[in-house]
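User: Need the bound-state model for nicotinamide-adenine-dinucleotide:
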Amino acid sequence: MPATVSEKTIGRLSLYRRLLYELRSAGEENLYSHQLAQMAGVTAAQVRRDLMSIGYSGSPTRGYDVRELGESIGRFLDSPIDQGVALVGVGNLGRAIMAFFAGRRPHLRIVAAFDTDPYKVNRVIQGVRCYSLEQMPQVVESEGIQVGILAVPAVAAQGAADTLVRAGVRGLLNFAPVPLRVAPDIYVEDIDMTMSLEKVAYFARQRATQKELQTW
Amino acid sequence: MPATVSEKTIGRLSLYRRLLYELRSAGEENLYSHQLAQMAGVTAAQVRRDLMSIGYSGSPTRGYDVRELGESIGRFLDSPIDQGVALVGVGNLGRAIMAFFAGRRPHLRIVAAFDTDPYKVNRVIQGVRCYSLEQMPQVVESEGIQVGILAVPAVAAQGAADTLVRAGVRGLLNFAPVPLRVAPDIYVEDIDMTMSLEKVAYFARQRATQKELQTW
DNA sequence: GTAACGCTGTGAATAATTTCACAGAATAAT
DNA sequence: ATTATTCTGTGAAATTATTCACAGCGTTAC
Ligand SMILES: NC(=O)c1ccc[n+]([C@@H]2O[C@H](COP(=O)([O-])OP(=O)(O)OC[C@H]3O[C@@H](n4cnc5c(N)ncnc54)[C@H](O)[C@@H]3O)[C@@H](O)[C@H]2O)c1
Ligand SMILES: NC(=O)c1ccc[n+]([C@@H]2O[C@H](COP(=O)([O-])OP(=O)(O)OC[C@H]3O[C@@H](n4cnc5c(N)ncnc54)[C@H](O)[C@@H]3O)[C@@H](O)[C@H]2O)c1
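Assistant: Bound-state model below.
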């Protein structure tokens, strides 16, 4: 069991757990590494290697217990106490995100939203209260929020990140197409849709071209 | 100049180009690898290594020409002819995406949307016509679409992917939290917000804990 | 019993990615 | 001119991530 677990492994564990949850709903009780691997789109060795890091062991004959493994990943990934999330920027994307996460994982839910638009402040959207920026330090403090989602325009992203971090947030999910400058002990995950779409366009084109050249 | 360029490098090149474009708007004409690196949040060696793959050379004394380098990345990344994109699923997320990409890069724009909801079909949203699923093969064919964005509910994602691929699409940007099963010559990029948020929550917590234990 | 099977857990090998470190080059200063 | 400076481009090294390959085990079949 390694001291630190890589970012990639954490991501895959999250995926495995979701797949296990679906299997459990479907009534499955056991599965082998190669089955989970096929569902997750990775190799069986990868699955077993990832599971080493949480210290869960399967049986050579039955494989893994769907319920136990799911719970084991949960104990590893989730906080023992519920983690509240703050969303900054209640625009088109922000509202879609609120709708998406509403009523999902209770361990990790959006508990407060922030926006500069006075029309949005004090409204309740998807069951979540929208506050003004001035209220952020107080709300983040009182709710014990450690995670922030940035869905503000690019120009406002760095400022919003600074305010969140000053208020006590330790991790950021950033949708603004701007690399954030934060202290090295703050974790930032960027979701850069423009970059992702350009990647898809590049490789789609490349594969199409390769296909044409396929003469062997 | 390597025969194939890694996915990660393609992603960073997309980012570099955006940063260069901003610099150009700000009137900058030259910059060094360490400056671009700092803006992109990577090392200078990484920038130089990435630029090797597109075969653009800078000057040891002036660094890189902002305009030339941007154009050079464009020639490498972009298709010589405009690439149209199809969006499937005009819900909360789909509409936010349409708003976001509307009027951005003309090389790579959403030219058609698809939805099963008869209320949405034949409407024009953000300048983009919404079609029924039955029209997909015909529209994808006539528009020469190679790239698809999936913003449909999880249960509909695999079916929508299959329909897109059958119609001729070679690359997919998938927002549904479901690993897609497609032919190996189809490129898929997943944006899994649940996984990303869980990663942030995990590392935010871990860093916070480390800070507490910081006794050295 | 015990032999055969097909899995897991994991050291070792391999592959991919990043960083180091420095020769070579363009310029500026003298 | 010559020297000093500070960068780029790139082999080589280091690091990180993935895959191979197999010993060992629980189960089943006979
Ligand atoms: N819409 C998308 O699908 C999409 C896709 C990729 C990236 N993004 C990025 O996500 C961000 C939000 O996009 P959007 O489409 O929701 O934009 P939007 O304009 O619809 O919403 C932005 C919201 O942020 C609020 N805001 C502005 N400044 C603020 C500040 N300083 N503090 C708090 N709130 C502030 C605005 O009042 C508005 O409600 C942008 O950075 C955009 O580039 C959006
Ligand atoms: N909203 C978010 O911020 C968010 C975040 C992460 C992931 N997602 C994922 O993105 C997807 C869409 O999310 P959403 O919030 O926009 O959902 P939504 O319910 O608002 O929209 C889904 C849209 O897809 C259409 N649709 C349903 N079946 C279809 C089919 N077979 N073909 C074409 N269109 C079909 C519906 O009519 C609807 O317009 C979901 O898979 C969701 O899990 C959304």
